[in-house]
Design goal:
With about 120 residues, this protein is mainly beta. The protein has no helices and 7 strands. The chain has a 5-stranded mixed beta sheet, with no helix packed on it. Strand 3 and strand 4 form a beta hairpin.
Amino acid sequence: MKPTTAKAGESVTVTAPDADCKPRYGDHARIQVAVNDATSRMVIDATTPMNDDGGFTYTFEVPSQMAVGDGAVTAVPYNIDWCDDTGRNHRADGAAVTLQRASCVMPTKPLTITR
């Protein structure tokens, strides 16, 4: 994510490279990006296209109502069972692959808002 410190009205870009594990999200996959301010209030909740391998780029303008201080940005695959606690990948049913469990911790990046 760049930059990691911004003011209201400035642009912030959130990106992720393609995953090495070939997750097969599909042609119409989307990522859900949420931005919370220093008071934990969600100020952005948006979806944007994601490629089959999980790569994406999303740019947003810091809202004027975003509280000053340390906020957070999260991005998770939208409308997908992205972390099945059974360790089963429902999108790979029948595939001849060896699957590995991944962490279910919400991926979060800090975003500091200044005036």
